Every structure is written in C-alpha cells, then in structure tokens.
Amino acid sequence: MKSLTAVAPLVLALLVTGCENRLPAPPTAPTTLIPSESSPAARPVGWNLTTTITSIVGSRGDCFSPVSSGGIGTPFHDHQFPLTITRSGESISLVVPDGWSDPYRYVGIVVGEDFTAGGRLAYSYTCSGSPPTRSDVVWEGHVSGRFSPDGYSLTATEVWSYKFPTGGEVTVHIDWTATRQD
C-alpha cells in the first residue's frame, strides 16, 4: 500500500504543474467523482466543520487581509453551509464553505484513514482609496488530516498560501475538526 507521505508531494506537484501556464477556473459547485467499476457509487456527504486559525505569517502591507473576521484562536463554524466530502476508492474531493465568498475545492487522495488534498486559484482584489487599486494574487491551499476509525469525525490542518506578483507572501494555518451530518 502506498505511503501517504510518499504520494503527497506527487499530488502537490501535479496540482502546481497543471496550472503553471494558465489561470485555473474558479471553484464550482460540489461534484461527484466518477467511481471505478469495482467501487460503490460515490456520493457527497455533508460535514459540520469548525475551523480555528492558528497562525498568519507575512504581511501584504496594503488592504489585503486573508481573514474577514474572527482572528487567531477564534473557532468558526457555520453549519448552514457544510463541508462536503466525496470519496471514491483512494480519491477525495472536499468542497469547503466560505461564508464571505464562493466555496473552494480541494482534490486529493485517501490512504487508509489519512487524506491529503490541494487546490489553486488566481484572482484579483481591490483596495479602496482614491483611486481604488486592483492587485493580483495566487491562492494555493492544502489540507491534510485523518478520519476517525468509524469514519464519523475528522481532524486536519489546512494551509493557505497567498502569493503576490511583487514577491510578497502571506501564509495562514488553520486547524479543522468536523463531524458527519448523517
């Protein structure tokens, strides 16, 4: 059986290389992965997700902020918009709610109870002022964690990395806990 540690760099390399020369499409609504012939049909499952920011490293120096409210150490949960996970064999898709924006999607692998997944998005943000200024940013996210033996809870660590054309970078570390809704 493959080691999660050995496969994770390959998954991240594929994600980064796949988007190298083009802007990726924005996240889409939850989709079901196509299961292999030998696996049962994959179906999205809702999870009650609680996140806690544990650190923010770096500074943009302008109006950019990776966090809209709360802050370091403040748990956040919005059970109105659940985390959606679809598993099929060793594949996993996580559609993560964002109370201030569209949900974002991670795609990755599951080995036993361990999982790792990533995603990438390029966009622009506007700083208010006179005149307002627009800046580009590339967001890369990664989440690694473990399902409980019964499959009804999980813990994970998520890392957001915002990279700016000027060379600046902001990194956010977030702890996850989640329980299945069914």
Question: What is the secondary structure topology, with strand pairs?
Answer:
Elements: H1 4-18, E1 45-57, E2 75-77, E3 83-88, E4 91-96, E5 104-111, E6 114-127, E7 133-147, E8 153-163, E9 169-180
Antiparallel strand pairs: 1-2, 1-3, 1-9, 3-4, 4-5, 5-6, 6-7, 7-8, 8-9
Q: Features of this protein?
A:
single chain; 182 residues; mainly beta; 8% helix; elongated
How many angstroms does the end-to-end distance come to? 30 Å
**Counted beta strands:** 9
Query: Can you tell me the residue ranges where pLDDT is under 50 for at least 5 consecutive residues?
Result: 1-39
Overall pLDDT: 75
Query: Over the alpha carbons, how many angstroms does the gyration radius reach?
Result: 17 Å
Secondary structure class reads: mainly beta
Number of helices: 1
Count of all domains: 1
Main sheet overview:
8 strands, antiparallel, barrel
Order of helices and strands: HEEEEEEEEE
Strand content: over 45%
Q: What proportion of the residues is helical, as a percent range?
A: under 10%
Estimate the global geometry from the Cα principal axes: elongated
For the largest beta sheet, what order do the strands appear in spatially? Answer: 1-3-4-5-6-7-8-9
How is this structure best described in words?
The chain has 182 residues and is mainly beta. It has one domain (4-23, 45-180). It has one helix and nine strands, in the order αβββββββββ. It has one helix at residues 4-18; strands at residues 45-57, 75-77, 83-88, 91-96, 104-111, 114-127, 133-147, 153-163, 169-180. An eight-stranded antiparallel β-barrel has the order 1-3-4-5-6-7-8-9. The longest helix is centred in the first third of the chain and has 15 residues, at 4-18. It is elongated. Residues 1-39 have low confidence and may be disordered.
